[in-house]
Amino acid sequence: MSVIYVKKIYLGLIMNEIVDNITIRKATLEDGDVLCNLIDALAHYEKLTPPDSEAKERLKLDACGPFPRITAWLGEYEGKVVSYAITCFTYSSFLAK
Questions:
Q1: 20 near 6, Cβ under 8 Å?
Q2: Alpha carbon distance 24, 39 (integer Å)
Q3: Is residue 72 within 8 Å of residue 64, measured between CB atoms?
Q4: How many CB atoms are located within 10 Å of the residue 22 CB?
Q5: The model's pTM
Q6: pLDDT (0 to 100) of residue 91
Q7: How far apart are CA 53 and CA 56, in angstroms?
Q8: Which one of 17, 34, 85, 97 is most buried, by most CB atoms within 10 A?
Q9: Of 86, 89, 62, which Cα lies nearest the Cα of 75?
Q10: Please, is 7 exposed, middle or buried when counting C-beta atoms within 10 Å of its C-beta (0-12, 13-18, 19+)?
Q11: What is the mean pLDDT of each run of 10 residues along the chain (97 residues)?
Q12: How far is it, in rounded angstroms, from Cα 33 to Cα 13?
């Protein structure tokens, strides 16, 4: 169980709230469409162009395929996926770190 500080927008007002029963788990290939839906929703909110269908397929494989390049995490609240995070590592061969 994780405690997450969230910001809700309700009737144009920003309300801060602590949610203490969110489950965070690693996304699986079966979660690919849910992950892409969340990314689409964020793009819409930010008034950005969402990924096209080819980019979504790359994203699913990059996150959950046989050779993942990123790690996608999903937050579940009351059994429903409500958030995501993507983590990745970089490595410098020159600095060896």
A1: no
A2: 17
A3: yes
A4: 17
A5: 0.74
A6: 82
A7: 5
A8: 34
A9: 86
A10: exposed
A11: 48 54 90 95 91 96 93 90 90 85
A12: 30
What does 20-51 look like in DSSP terms, one character per residue? EEEEEEE--GGGHHHHHHHHHHHHHHTT-PPP
How remote is the C-alpha of 52 from its chain's centroid? 17
Main-chain phi, psi angles of 28, to 5 degrees? -115, 170
Tokens (6 digits) for 21: 């029963």
Can you read off the two tokens belonging to residue 5?
């500080």
Token duo for residue 32: 């690919």
Is the separation of the CB atoms in 38 and 83 below 8 Å?
yes
Residues 6+ apart with CB under 8 A from 19: 3, 4, 5, 6, 77
DSSP designation for 69: S
Distance CA(87)–CA(63), nearest Å, equals 9
- Location of structure tokens 């405690």: 3
